[in-house]
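Model: You mentioned two targets. I'll fold them one after the other.
Researcher: Yes, keep them separate.
Model: Target one:
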Amino acid sequence: MQNNNIKTLETLADQYLSEYRYKDAKGIYFKLISINPKNYIYLSRIAYIELLLKNYEDSKSFFLKSISICSTYIDGYNCLGYIYKLQGDFIKARFYYNRALCIDNCYTPALTNLAVLIMHEEPKKALELLKKAQSINTESADIYFNLGLAYTILKDYKQAIHFYIKAIHIKPNFILAIFN
């Protein structure tokens, strides 16, 4: 009986998320946490909602709780890196992206996020990370665009144009790629 109630609540929370009813979804996840306080997925969903609402400190707190319960929760580390980057703490952002990559060195969101973070200071390292991400996900316009940026920084304009064009082929209205 309780498992059916949990499934019903999970479905309803997901529905509310898809309808942008974040406060309603958050309320349901808090109910679910009261049933199962050690469920890192519920905690991470609340963290994600707080991130969408730009409540960064609350979001960090819930992501930190989620990774304290499941130390291999890779998306939690990646999201923490993203939040710290938004807040301008690039050292902690890099730390959390690297933690994600320690769990799975082929995790393309962390590869790409770390590459973008370090692109201006370490463009060759960023290029290496982006090439790895591209070898895993050959259909990402964003990865191709970032490869174009990295080559632009390295003043290899022929390669930069090549990757901007690849990004445009995947995403024809990619304004930044078209502009570059």
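Model: Target two:
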Amino acid sequence: MTRILIIFGTLGLIVLFGWTSWRNVTPNGVFEVSYDFKKESPFITSLSPGDRVTSVVTDTAGVSYQTITDEPIYFRVRAPRSFTSGIITLRYKNPTHPILRIGGLVNRVANQFDLKTIENAATGENFYREENGWRVGGAEFDLTRLQTSDGRTYTFVISVPGISAAGNHVDVAGISVRLLRQ
């Protein structure tokens, strides 16, 4: 009986080690992770700084989100290794504001970001789809152009120009990341 427990315990540890290694080494060259604001993620931080976003709120449908009240808003993506490209996708509600952009940090000293438009009502540039009352939109980034703090942590910005002056807001309920190696 003890021998069987040792065998199953060893097999369990091997499977756990293999799964963790596969997840972190990404031998297939793809790393995907999502953050839905329900619990902290080891790979995607919550939105910050706190004076520009609300605390996490959960609506009656059980969807957790943060409300952007001022800009710019930042979040970081911690990758298990370096990657060459990535797609960042937001799940959001933008009831009244005409422009929403996302950007990756290019130059920390100059505070320069490679901004990509997700939504611009004035120009008709809309790179989102509707899904259960939320918009889902994203942008692709060349990660080799982005500056990292440690070779694996990327900083992104959500830009909603003039949001505080207009008294508008944007609710963000999810961030999804798909990183690729070539």
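Researcher: Noted. Anything on target two?
Model: The mean pLDDT is 88.
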